Amino acid sequence: MIRHLTPLAAAAGILSASSAFAADNVSMDDPNIAVGYEEGGRYYTEDGIPTFNVKEDGTVDWPTFSGFRRYHAECHVCHGPDGEGSTYAPALKNSALDMDYYDFVDVVVNGRQKVGASENSVMPAFGTNPNVMCYLDDIYTYLKAHGSGAIARGRPAKKEPKSDTFAEMEDACMGS
After folding, report:
1. Which residue, 46, 77, 86, 91, is most buried by CB atoms nearer than 10 A?
2. Do 75 and 138 contact (CB within 8 A), yes or no?
3. Are 103 and 165 in contact (CB under 8 A)?
4. What pLDDT does residue 28 have?
């Protein structure tokens, strides 16, 4: 039985949750990061939020590795390499830790505009882009892993193999 929501269901506001903590104080035992269970090659917290799994030898789970690849294909132009931020877009490695998962999904799906005396920023909506939406949880787990310090900047050197379940979900989402 699948115990998690797709990003689109989450963005629709079916569930809500809260988690806020600073990257400086992240512990791998934190319930917002700690692996609660694995399903089809993807890892989740006890609350069903996608998370990463990095083994002692540095091997990352497939979704985190995929997230690195997808982030650098779609997001780094504005948000900088490895989610470090830029002069006009925030550091997403921090957003994955400081922002509630469902809020993160909502911003990616629907975009966001902040206009005021001290800031003027626009995040375009990616809800119709399968290159983002089919991999949104991957991007999120990659940013969460990097933001927490579990992985360093750059391409992870070792990765778990892609599971059959993950490959099937990817094909279905991309329409293959």
Report:
1. 91
2. no
3. no
4. 65
pTM assigned to the model: 0.79
**C-beta separation of 141 from 63 below 8 A:** yes
103 closest CA partner among 4, 8, 11: 11
Paired tokens of 57: 């030898």
pLDDT digits (tens, 9 = 90+) for 60-113: 999 999 999 999 998 888 887 877 777 777 778 777 778 889 999 999 999 988
- Provide the pLDDT confidence category of residue 132 given band limits of 50, 70 and 90: very high
CA distances from 34 to 27, 81, 166 (A): 8, 25, 21
Residue 120 belongs to what H/E stretch? Answer: strand 120-123
- Sign, Cα dihedral of 133, 161, 44, 148: negative
Domains in the chain, CATH or no CATH each: 21-174 (1.10.760)
Pairing of strands 112-115, 42-44: unpaired
